Amino acid sequence: MSSPGSRAVGPPPDPGLLSLYDRALPEVYGYLLARCGQRALAEDLTAETFLAAVRAEADGGGPTSVGWLIGTARHKLVDHWRRREREQRSLRLLDGGADDAEDPWDARLDALRAQQVLERLTPAQRAALTLRYLDDLPVPRVAALLGRTVHATEALLVRSRIAFRRRYEATDTDTDTDTDTETTEPTGGAT
């Protein structure tokens, strides 16, 4: 018989889960703290992770490893970031300010300007910058594709960035009709 106001107590927790908790707590907490950088948030997400483990065990599919808990912690952290971004987006909309990320006009203008500047560079400079920064190739691969040594390619990239920057900044103020004397590059393999 139970007295009025008393609660029924469920079965004691599984000793395997308690053992897993003891082993995994520092790892789960450390994983979260290293990624979010906030102690209180890491503690909250760690608690949510272990609560999910208890629920999973109650449903018959409990965690079997620290890896499962780390994976669950990662999902909790991602869910937190998504929730936070939604809240910030809502606050920006309520504030009356338009979401800057939704207006691609400035990015399009910058891309158009960058494309125009690239077209005014020498073919070697344009190829080097495109392969390295747009195609994200490593310098040795760019060198192989251009038929140059790695050292010569690095030098070409430095000169190309300087020429690009100079012309890009000049398009802010004028039409940049002058040509750089540094931009002439040999087409063959350089030293």
Layout of secondary structure:
Blueprint: H1 15-36, H2 39-58, H3 66-94, H4 105-119, H5 123-134, H6 139-146, H7 150-173
Helix pairs in contact: 1-2, 1-3, 2-3, 4-7, 5-6, 5-7, 6-7
Structure overview:
With 191 residues, this protein is mostly helical. The protein has 7 helices and no strands. It has helices at residues 15-36, 39-58, 66-94, 105-119, 123-134, 139-146, 150-173. The longest helix has 29 residues, at 66-94. The termini are far apart.
Quick recap of the structure?
With 191 residues, the chain is an all-alpha fold.
Report the mean per-residue pLDDT as an integer.
Answer: 80
Instruction: Give the termini separation.
Output: 93 Å
In DSSP terms (H or I, runs of 4 or more residues), the helix count works out at: 7
Into which percent range does the helicity of residues fall?
Answer: 55-70%
Strand portion, in percent?
under 5%
Question: What does the largest sheet look like?
Answer: none
Task: Provide key terms for this protein.
disordered C terminus, 191 residues, 7 helices, 68% helix, 0% strand
